[in-house]
């Protein structure tokens, strides 16, 4: 496990516990992890809410099993069954609609989409589906924009422009790709699968067996995580940038009882 340095994001453990929440809905990038390490307080929080949390993430390049293995390397034991991703939810959306789809996804998710019976096409698409595809290039942009202009529905796993990377860097996200398509195709409606739409959170809460009213959303992005909390009627606690004092303070209180 390689925790993030003190000047990096931290979880406000005291604020989360003070809500009296039964369950947590946790963002991933920038909340549990940043770059190649865990955020301060993440392990404490997962241990405290064992069996009462879900990770809901706009990730659209990895399988839950892949994310679970990565978290384990950072010292965070999160089973795949508690990881709900926008990429997987978008694939379910495509499979349920049974439409010919021009799909831009990572190799892992393309394979999963094929296994779920999604029909892939290169032209005459009914749906253009965009996830975080790191191979997206000018040719892909041309095909996507022209398919949308011809009437294909545009579906995005999320509209996040970026997420935090190591050492203050940023990692371009799906929203940046969608913005490029819209810049070329012109104004179009977009069906968004991930946060801040409530689909992932509602599914996670059904699996956990808790209500939104007794849950807390924890995240680093007010526009997605905060808006999600508002959409489902849950409390929201943002990630902070304070040092580890809060975690140590709570730890001392717990063991003083």
**Within the largest sheet, what's the order of strands?**
5-4-1-13-14
The coarse overall form would be globular
Report, as a whole number of angstroms, the end-to-end distance.
Answer: 28 Å
Class of the largest domain, according to the CATH hierarchy? Answer: Alpha Beta
Q: Report Rg.
A: 19 Å
Most strands sheet: 5 strands, parallel
Strand content: 15-25%
How does the SSE layout of this entry go?
Blueprint: H1 13-18, E1 23-26, E2 33-34, E3 37-38, H2 42-48, E4 53-57, H3 64-73, E5 83-85, H4 86-97, E6 100-104, H5 107-115, E7 119-120, E8 127-130, H6 138-149, E9 153-156, E10 162-164, E11 170-172, H7 174-185, E12 190-192, H8 199-208, E13 215-219, H9 222-232, E14 235-238, H10 245-256
Parallel strand pairs: 1-4, 1-13, 4-5, 6-7, 6-8, 8-9, 9-12, 13-14
Antiparallel strand pairs: 2-3, 10-11
Helix pairs in contact: 6-7
How is this structure best described in words?
The radius of gyration is 19 Å and the shape is globular. The N terminus is likely disordered. It folds into two domains: 107 residues, HAD superfamily/HAD-like (Rossmann fold, 3-Layer(aba) Sandwich), CATH 3.40.50.1000; 106 residues, Rossmann fold (3-Layer(aba) Sandwich), CATH 3.40.50. β10 and β11 form a beta hairpin. It is 39% helix and 19% strand. The strands form four sheets. Strands 5-4-1-13-14 form a five-stranded parallel β-sheet, sandwiched between helices. Strands 7-6-8-9-12 form a five-stranded parallel β-sheet, with helices on both faces. The two termini are 28 Å apart. With 257 residues, it is of the alpha/beta class. α6 packs across α7. It has ten helices and 14 strands.
């Amino acid at each position: 496990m390689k925790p993030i340095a003190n000047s990096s994001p931290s979880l406000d453990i005291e604020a989360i516990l003070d809500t009296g929440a039964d369950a947590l809905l946790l963002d991933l990038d920038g909340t549990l992890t940043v770059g190649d390490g865990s955020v301060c307080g993440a392990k404490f929080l997962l241990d405290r809410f064992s069996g009462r949390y879900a990770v809901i993430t706009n990730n659209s390049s990895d399988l839950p099993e892949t994310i679970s293995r990565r978290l384990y390397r950072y010292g965070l034991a999160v089973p795949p069954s508690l990881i709900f991703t926008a990429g997987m939810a978008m694939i379910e959306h495509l499979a349920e609609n049974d439409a010919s789809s021009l799909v831009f996804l990572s190799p892992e998710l393309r394979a999963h989409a094929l296994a779920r019976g999604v029909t892939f096409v290169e032209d005459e698409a009914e749906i253009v589906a965009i996830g975080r595809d790191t191979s997206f290039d000018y040719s892909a942009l041309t095909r996507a924009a022209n398919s949308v202009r011809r009437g294909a529905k545009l579906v995005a796993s999320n509209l996040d422009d970026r997420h935090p990377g190591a050492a203050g860097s940023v990692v371009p996200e799906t929203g940046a790709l969608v913005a490029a398509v819209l810049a070329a195709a012109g104004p179009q409606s977009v069906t968004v699968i991930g946060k801040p739409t409530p689909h992932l959170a509602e599914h996670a809460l059904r699996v956990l067996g808790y209500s939104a009213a007794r849950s807390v959303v924890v995240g680093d992005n007010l526009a997605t995580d905060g808006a999600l909390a508002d959409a489902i009627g849950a409390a929201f606690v943002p990630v902070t940038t304070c040092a580890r004092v809060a975690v140590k303070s709570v730890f001392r209180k717990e063991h003083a009882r």
